[in-house]
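ESCALATION

Customer reports they have been waiting on this structure for their group meeting. Please prioritize. Original submission:
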Amino acid sequence: MSQNMILGIVALGAFAMVVLTTFFKARFEYLQNVELIRRGINPNENRIPRYLLRHLVLSIPGQYSLVFGIIFLALGLGFLIAFIVTGLWQNGHYMGGLAFSLASALGGTGFIAHWKLTARQRERALKIQEEMVLSQKLDLDSETEKKPEE
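Update from on-call: job pushed to the front of the queue and completed.
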């Protein structure tokens, strides 16, 4: 396999990572807006300000496990496919690449399994966090109503 072919595969992989990252971020925001609409909240009017969210310290189990799982799984599978396509496995000198790709893929699978196993705790923590945010927002709304206008 020529050097230009390998560079083309690497460039295509880098482009695919950017496109997939953008896609998953847009999809997450879309699903978040759909959930807000389902609960009767206008997502454009009732955005929770960042200064309210930073005061809420609540550990959400498995919050980033799905994201890291997808990244590591895709990274591992991408390296594995590149390792097989380039034929580096045939001479046996680059077996570290095979080990790295399999470790990444298995690590990503572990992250996804952790995300799936902590689903109940995550739902409970998100419900508690939502109640905390709404109570703080209601407190701020009542404070602004109590201020006398000059």
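Sent to customer with the following note: The radius of gyration is 23 Å.
Escalation resolved.
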